[in-house]
Amino acid sequence: MLNFELKNPVKILFGKGEIAKIASEIPKNEKVLLLYGGGSIKKNGIYNQVETALKNHTWIEFGGIPANPEYDILLEALNVIKSEKITYLLAVGGGSVIDGTKFLSSAALYEGEEPWDILANGIRTEVGMPFGTVLTLPATGSEMNSGAVVSRKSIGEKLGMGGPGLFPQFSVLDPTVVATIPKRQLANGVTDAFTHVMEQYMTYPVGADLQDRIAESIMVSLIETAPKIIANPSDYTTAANFMWCCTMALNGLIQKGVPTDWAIHAIGHELTAQYGIDHARTLAVIAPSHYRYNIETKKEKLAQYAQRVWNITEGTMEQKAEAAIKKSEEFFQSMEIGTRLSDYTSQFEGTAKRIKTSLINRGWVALGEHKKVTPDDVEKIVEMSY
Prior knowledge:
Layout: E1 11-14, H1 22-25, E2 31-35, H2 46-53, E3 58-62, H3 71-83, E4 88-94, H4 95-107, H5 117-120, E5 131-137, E6 147-152, E7 157-162, E8 170-173, H6 183-201, H7 209-231, H8 236-248, H9 263-275, H10 279-293, H11 295-310, H12 317-334, H13 351-362, H14 375-384
Parallel strand pairs: 1-8, 2-3, 2-4, 4-5, 5-8
Antiparallel strand pairs: 6-7
Helix pairs in contact: 3-4, 6-7, 6-8, 6-10, 7-8, 7-11, 9-10, 10-11, 10-12, 10-14, 11-12, 13-14
């Protein structure tokens, strides 16, 4: 097991009716900016619950944060924060709203002239404006970690940021919100969480037995939960398991003491930037090709995954590894998630070369757990996904 440090200060309020508790989590003297997305929270009752909880607070709202939170729109929110002298942020939404709020938490205290530099220059946020979250769409785990990703369509970029100042002070996880999530978003959430686990697990053995077992248990739970949550999102027990799996998949626990990959995410972000494909679906496109291309360095963990997660016990290590990749594809496809780039666009020629060039320009020339996945390798991986 590798050396590691672990600190996660996020307070989780899990269960039905927990939204009301934000009243005591946010100090009364703070001026709050409520941030949300397309407005579904005003149709499903969540907004009303938040409004009631904030009845004794001073607050205003900013809506319209899109999926893959857009920099230009976030700048509008940043102007509101400064002009209205906001002191506390409350994200009510899924990963995109929470990620956008993390950017605003950092940008609100940033002393430079161009907030985009936080992302472009990889500036670590040590202290941000305090914020809490009310999760409405399980998927990204952003409610219990300190990372975020922001898009900027005008220049075709999608970049990450992070730092200890970007942990939420609290996050409300009420599984009843899952009941109104569309089937497509539920499938995306399962796929996103499942791939998060794979990025932290599918590397090479380092004797981290507990981390492996926890990661495998999350994947097994997601496999079992997926058809049930898509068929009946109103079932509380299923929704609770789905929501907690998504949070546990990326709250920092399973990545401690082990090598991690994240090449799939790096490539997937490029596909979102180029085509606007849902984040989770870009992961389903790239993951199978990535694992097949790098099977020699990943075959031990792939074979372990085959046996422990998919109960594949026959064959050589290589045969188990390939069978596990196939099972992963079939799992995504069972939720109507396409696993080829051609499932999303007919204009895919040249995509691989453009992504290669983008990575070179950004200086990302050594991806993966061994830092040996080059832009040339990425080009081949993307071509395999066509």
